[in-house]
Design a protein that fits this description.
Blueprint (H helix, E strand, L loop, with lengths): L11 H51 L3 E2 L11 H4 L4 H5 L31 E4 L21 E2 L10 E5 L7 H6 L4 H5 L3 E2 L2 H5 L23 E6 L4 E5 H4 L17
Length: 257
Amino acid sequence: MHHRSYMRAFSLIELLVALCITMMLVGLLLPALASTRDASIATRCASNQHQIGLAVTQFAGDHFDLLPREGISPWTDSLAESKHIPWVNAIQSYIDHPGGRTDFASPILLDPAHPNPNHQVQYVVNGIGFPSLPYGIDVVGSDRRPASPLSLLHRPTEMIYLTAFTEDADNSIANNALTGDLNHDAGLYDVWNLAHLLGPDHGSDSIARDVRRVGINRHGTGNNVLFADGHVDARVTEFIQRPREWYDGLLWKPDSP
């Protein structure tokens, strides 16, 4: 006697139930995967900023304890002529960058969450000390900070030195200012006017173009921040856009660049 063996087929209802369970599991898994991906991107960004901080510290060690800030001119043998070296140019020889100071193409200068490939630099540095802050929040003008002695900063552990560069979604900065002149172009990546921090409604200088240069909400509800003492931490947008967090405590005004 032969016994016929066969496999029982799934019913339509059973297939639908299995499909629904699979979809529910995928729905639960996707946010976790997205969160893991975002955390990985934020970690890579923090690593880049940490390496920038090390490079800046090395530069200061080799150049009279000076923290590079706003800049429009290259470093020369003369300290007086070199105090306005752009921070991007200053650190080129201290990062993994075979081109030296001849271009900006280094992965360390790229924020992995930045959406605009037109910018080879995707971070922005503190180029203004907001000197009016000890007497109130009325910040006017565009007093640019040249390279500043680290030892004279009022609160290096709390002063924002560098954070995310704006998305420049409409390419207004890229189209109007990127020229191929590295000393000029490096000057796009520093904050030296209140408009660069808060936006055009707070502008006070036509040369500044009154556009925001600081990125917001790059990583969730804020950005990574490199502080003047070299440590990196995450901060919410509200913190990053408070002028007092950029105040350097130096009670002097720089010579005109």
